[in-house]
Design brief:
Layout lengths: L3 H25 L5 H26 L8 H42 L8 E2 L2 E2 L3 H20 L8 E9 L9 E6 L10 H13 L4 E4 L15 H4 L8 E3 L19 H15 L2 E2 L3 E7 L2 E7 L15 H5 L8 E4 L4 H10 L5 E4 L9 E3 L2 E3 L11 E5 L2 E5 L17 E9 L4
Helix pairs in contact: 1-2, 1-3, 1-4, 2-3, 3-4
């Protein structure tokens, strides 16, 4: 819980940031007419004051009385504005350090001569760096606000994976993979239903969901049961738990329900949906007379702040008898930490978790997101030797109610036998 001193410090830092950025805005608008300057100053301080009021409301717990949609967008808009200020301030700070060094040099080495960039008031602010900082901050803020409209923009990503050990009976099998629903974040049931329709339109032989059905509580699925129960496939729908499904980030008990009971209730929801929840186990899949193993474990993360409930040894026991193995494991850090070093015959691992941070750039030949500095494998296909990992960037969203660059994805994976292709 934030203390009064901590809350005061947060507000103090925000006000200092507001003033610091405003000084750059003021410097850049000196050449504008007085009316234009007034509009610029007024708009800046209007947004700044609204942001500070919003933070105060959050700190005072008043946000709980606002409708979910309002508090979600208010929180995201505040973060967007603050992030934009921070990015702009980096450029302004570089310029201020430059000016300080230049001023110190002029006083030390040029006492009797005038430095070109000096005036009666000292070293002038660099217009280039200031405009660059302002452009960067404004672009970030605009992108994050625009991203609100992208959260239900589901794309279909088609991937063909070739293996020489895939049983002939599974040649051409189609797997529809999605992950990270986070039903507690949804605010538009019709849009979500459209995404599910896209899943079903692919007519996959099987569907795999790799965890995080809810944000915290099983009750978040109440309004979406009649949406996700439409997810069916001839060979079945298979699922597992992600880190959020365990209720690690919520206060318990809630509504008379304990954390343990919440997990039991969520497991029942998977069952009611008709999904086969994989809990540290494997099952055989049969097609055209051939069999492969599908392994599913609970969340297992190599990152210390995320739970490590999964038991790969238990899930794998007996699976070595099958010629081809697919693993469902929510967190992609599991691949490098345990799967590749100890289970070299797991052919394909399907994960989610990262969301691609819901922010980044993805164009042909180039892909970037801040999340790549935390996760080596964070979006798309990765290969090491004969083993492959696919990380789905998520169907839903959490925290930030939008997506910029890294869209919600439904992955359609076709497995082929390289000798039959």
């Amino acid at each position: 819980m934030r203390t009064p001193v901590g809350s005061f410090m947060v507000l103090l830092i925000m006000i200092a940031l507001d003033i610091y950025v405003f000084m750059a805005v003021k410097s850049l608008s000196l050449s504008a007419g007085s009316r234009t300057r007034g509009l610029i100053y007024g708009f800046y301080w209007l947004v700044s004051i609204i942001t500070i009021i919003g933070v105060v409301i959050f700190m005072a717990k008043g946000i709980e009385y606002l409708p979910k949609k309002i508090r979600t967008y208010l929180f995201a808009s505040i973060l967007a504005f603050v992030f934009a200020q921070v990015i702009s301030s980096v450029f302004f700070l570089i310029d201020d350090v430059r000016r300080l060094i230049q001023w110190a040099a002029s006083k030390t080495f040029f006492r009797n001569t005038e430095v070109a960039t000096m005036s009666g008031d000292g070293i002038s602010r660099s217009a280039f760096l200031s405009w660059l900082g302002l452009a960067a901050g404004t672009s970030l803020f605009g992108s994050l606000i625009y991203g609100f409209s992208n959260k239900y923009n589901y794309r279909i990503k088609r991937v063909k994976l070739s293996y020489d050990n895939l049983p002939p009976g599974f040649h051409g099998v189609k797997i529809v993979h999605f992950s990270d629903v986070h039903s507690g974040s949804f605010m538009n049931k019709k849009a979500v239903a459209h995404g599910v329709e896209k899943i079903m339109a692919e007519n996959g032989d099987m569907v795999i969901f790799s965890g995080d059905l809810v944000n915290d509580r099983a009750t978040e699925m109440n309004d979406y049961m009649d949406v996700f129960d439409k997810v069916k496939a001839p060979m079945g729908v298979y699922s597992t738990f992600g880190n959020h499904d365990y209720g690690e980030y919520a206060r318990w008990p809630y509504g008379g329900v304990t954390k343990d009971q919440n997990l039991i209730n969520l497991a029942k929801i998977h069952e009611q949906l008709g999904w086969r929840l994989m809990m540290d186990e494997h099952i055989p899949l049969e097609r055209n007379g051939d069999k492969i193993a599908l392994i599913g474990i609970q969340n297992w993360s190599a990152k210390a702040r995320f739970p490590k409930y999964g038991n790969m040894k238990k899930a794998y026991a007996g699976a070595e008898n099958y010629p081809f193995k697919i693993l469902i494991s929510h967190d992609p850090s599991h691949w490098d930490a345990e799967v590749r070093p100890e289970y070299g015959d797991v052919d394909l691992m399907l994960s989610g978790h990262t969301h691609g941070m819901q922010f980044g750039v993805e164009i042909p030949g180039f892909k970037w997101s801040p999340v790549q500095y935390m996760y080596k494998e964070w979006d798309g296909l990765y290969e090491e030797g004969k083993q492959k990992l696919y990380v789905n960037p998520g169907f839903g969203f959490i925290g930030y109610p939008g997506r910029v660059g890294i869209l919600a994805e439904i992955t359609v994976i076709e497995l082929v036998n390289s000798k039959m292709a």
